[in-house]
């Protein structure tokens, strides 16, 4: 349920109202927008008399929220949320490129790529240390050593780092990671989501391979219900009957998720298509339909990459994509 507060209400009146909601066993989420304050009420609101509330002279309107996601709902927070990743802002008009290799392979590889993508305008460095591979015989990532190498690249370039977590057991290793990624395969790992709800680091949540937008937002809700509201949603393609592309990039998810939720939405055209030459057109299309950023795989030697070489751009190709995307941003 949400209660929209009338302009000009004093702090004391607002606090009295909030205390009353709390005394009814409800949790209150306060969203102070530029023009009005919206109170989101979480819990069993069935006993709340909406007619009585609407009659109070400090309340403009009271609405029940039918969607199962509350904290992630735009009705709870009408303005776009801006997520701050160690000084890099995403959402609310702030656009960011996250770029880097699928997997961290060596110090020289990650540091060299970091320097190149930074020079082309990327503000966050990605690189997998723990890799969710379909085959147990494929390269599984450098694990803790991979995170150490990312930290070296961060030291060399000043770029905040993004890397994927697969288990709650590994959380202590992520202490110096700026943005923790939950990959598509773990979107519904609810124990992991609950643990991430208890920390205050930003989370990059990727859409599951076969998950609806409602399920995606419910996963964000799991993290937010624990108190962590710093979430960036990432559309990375869903599985369909199509085989020419690795996945099917659901670009309609961008405007739909942004309508339903206040959270920033970025797009990963690399995993969505699986083909390097498809990355540029889909990155431009993502920017055109309102994405708040892009996550793109870049490798200095794609042919010899230990993972996802076929979809990885060279630094030169990334530079071209970044320039094109910025041109689209100017137009829109
Ligand atoms: C990744 O970004 O490294 C990754 C494995 O992506 P996804 O979870 O979208 O498959
Ligand atoms: Mn990859």
Provide structural commentary.
With 332 residues, the protein is of the alpha/beta class. The chain has 2 domains: 62 residues, Alpha-Beta Plaits (2-Layer Sandwich), CATH 3.30.70.1140; 249 residues, Aldolase class I (TIM Barrel, Alpha-Beta Barrel). Helices cover 33% and strands 18% of the residues. It is built from 10 helices and 14 strands. The strands form 3 sheets. Strands 13-12-11-10-9-8-7-14 form an 8-stranded parallel β-sheet. A hairpin with a 4-residue loop joins strand 2 and strand 3. Helix 5 packs across helix 6. The radius of gyration is 21 Å and the shape is elongated. The mean pLDDT is 97.
What would CATH call the class of the largest domain? Alpha Beta
Strand content: 15-25%
Corresponding CATH superfamily of the largest domain: Aldolase class I
* Number of strand elements: 14
Model regions low in confidence, pLDDT < 50 over at least 5 residues: none
H-E string: EHEEHEEEEHEHEEHEHEHEHHEH
The largest sheet has its strands arranged as 13-12-11-10-9-8-7-14
CATH architecture of the largest domain: Alpha-Beta Barrel
């Amino acid at each position: 349920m949400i209660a929209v507060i009338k302009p000009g209400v004093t702090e004391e009146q607002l606090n009295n109202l909030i205390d009353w909601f709390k005394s009814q066993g409800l949790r209150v989420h306060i969203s102070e927008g530029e023009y009005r304050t919206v109170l989101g009420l979480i819990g069993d609101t069935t006993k709340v008399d909406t007619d009585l509330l609407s009659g109070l002279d400090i309340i403009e309107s009271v609405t029940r929220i039918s969607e199962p996601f509350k904290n992630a709902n735009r009705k709870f927070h009408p303005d776009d949320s801006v997520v701050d990743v160690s000084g890099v802002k995403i959402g609310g008009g702030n656009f960011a490129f996250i770029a880097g290799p699928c997997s961290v392979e060596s110090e020289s590889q990650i540091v060299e790529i970091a320097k190149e993508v930074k020079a082309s305008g990327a503000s966050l460095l990605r690189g997998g240390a723990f890799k969710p591979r379909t085959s147990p015989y494929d390269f599984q990532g450098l694990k803790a050593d991979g995170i150490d190498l990312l930290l070296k690249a961060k030291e060399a370039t000043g770029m905040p780092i993004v890397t994927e977590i697969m288990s709650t057991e590994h959380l202590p290793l992520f202490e110096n990671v700026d943005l923790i990624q939950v990959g598509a395969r773990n979107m519904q790992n609810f124990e992991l989501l609950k643990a991430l709800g208890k920390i205050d680091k930003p989370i990059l949540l990727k859409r599951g391979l076969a998950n609806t937008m409602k399920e995606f937002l419910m996963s964000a809700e799991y993290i937010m219900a624990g108190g962590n509201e710093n979430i960036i949603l990432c559309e990375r393609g869903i599985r369909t009957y199509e085989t020419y592309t690795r996945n099917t990039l659901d670009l309609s998810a961008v405007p739909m998720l942004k309508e339903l939720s206040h959270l920033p939405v970025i797009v990963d055209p690399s995993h969505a298509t699986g083909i390097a030459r498809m990355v540029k057109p889909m990155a431009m299309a993502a920017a055109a339909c309102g994405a708040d950023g892009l996550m793109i795989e870049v490798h200095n030697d794609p042919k010899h990459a230990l993972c996802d070489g076929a979809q990885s751009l060279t630094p030169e190709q990334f530079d071209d994509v970044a320039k094109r995307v910025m041109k689209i941003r100017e137009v829109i």
